[in-house]
Amino acid sequence: MENNEFFIHTSETEKRLFISRPKKYKSDALSPCEMTPDDVDYEMQTGKHPEILEICGMNQKSFEHFAKNYAGTYRFLSFFKCQLISDFSPLEDLAKLEAVDIYWNIRTDKLWNMKKNTSLRTLSVSDAKRMTFFPALAATSPTLEEVLFGGSCFNNTPMESLDCFAGMPSLKKLYLYNIRLNNKNMDFLKTLPTLEEFHFDAGMYTTEEIAWIVAKYPKLQGKCLCAYNEKDAFLNDVRVCGFRKPGLDLPKHQKRLDKYVAEFNALVEKYRNE
User: Fold this and answer.
1) Distance separating alpha carbons of residues 10 and 4, to the nearest angstrom
2) CB of 210 closer than 8 Å to CB of 241
3) Helices 207-216 & 254-273, crossing angle to 10 degrees?
4) Which of 164, 243, 232, 233 has its CA nearest to residue 204?
5) Which residues of 7-17 are buried (b: 16+ CB within 10 A; e: fewer)?
6) Quick one: which of 109, 177, 250, 273 has the fewest CB in 10 Å?
7) CB 174 within 8 A of CB 199
């Protein structure tokens, strides 16, 4: 997911909300979650960008204060390491909001009702285990076009199923990275008439399941909706798509790759004729 309009350069401090005043803590650890409503007021008076903001270190109290007093003008909000926010419902009334990015949260187990966020187009959630398990409220959005859920970079994060995205009327692109599905039922796909791209890790589905998607939804694009992927290979030249399938080096393993491709194509043809 890329949106250059909302890209924040490292030097753009006016697009970042964090505690700039030095503080003394009882412990040695400088927790970024010590932001108070007073800190929010102080930092916002320094000339923050009125539409694009990355927020670091908010807890629930300071978040609610920010949402009530400052958030109405924002089109893009990024919550970076705001691990102690437990409820994102203050975002519900932000009609100008176009994109939300949430990275690292340990308290929240759900999204928020997005019916009033009539400008919202993009949602990205990464390394937020509780929120990722079953983000049912994503389907309350009438306007979301791009949705990304990413798990931990160390361990795949469990997601109950993809039924949470069923019926989203505007969804065009769905990205799932470092996700482990408990239920791989794919009925949700037939409820998404506008879906154009479905991206996931090469090992999230079996080869048979990937072939089934390709056969039944031939217009659907995705980096792993194929027999193998070059871009998904970190240690090898190519990665064969499918759970527990190997990475291969070329031309050394060309014959093995040809075999996998032939088997994949045969599966697609089989499911296409069923």
Assistant:
1) 14
2) yes
3) 50
4) 243
5) ebeeeebebbb
6) 273
7) yes
Contact 170, 142 (CB under 8 A): yes
Nearest to 143 by CA among 91, 111, 97: 97
Q: Is 95 exposed, middle or buried (0-12, 13-18, 19+ CB in 10 A)?
A: exposed
Q: CA–CA separation, 18 vs 79, rounded Å?
A: 11
Contacts of 171 (CB under 8 A, 6+ apart): 144, 145, 146, 147, 165, 192, 194, 195
Report the alpha-carbon distance of residue 83 to residue 13 in Å, rounded.
Answer: 21
Q: Look at 4-18, 26-40, 93-107, 232-246 and tell me which has the smallest mean pLDDT.
A: 26-40
**pLDDT tens sequence across 51-72:** 999 999 999 999 999 999 999 9
Q: Is 29 exposed, middle or buried (0-12, 13-18, 19+ CB in 10 A)?
A: exposed
> Residue 30: its pLDDT value, please?
47
pLDDT band for position 231 (cuts 50, 70, 90): confident
Query: β-strand 173-177 against 197-200: which pairing, if any?
Result: parallel
The residue whose two tokens read 């250059």 is 4
Identity at 70, one-letter amino acid code: Y
CA distance 44 to 71: 11
Q: DSSP class of residue 147?
A: E
* pLDDT tens by residue, 174-224: 999 999 999 999 999 999 999 999 999 999 999 999 999 999 999 999 999
Instruction: Give the span between the Cα atoms of 39 and 14, in whole angstroms.
Output: 15
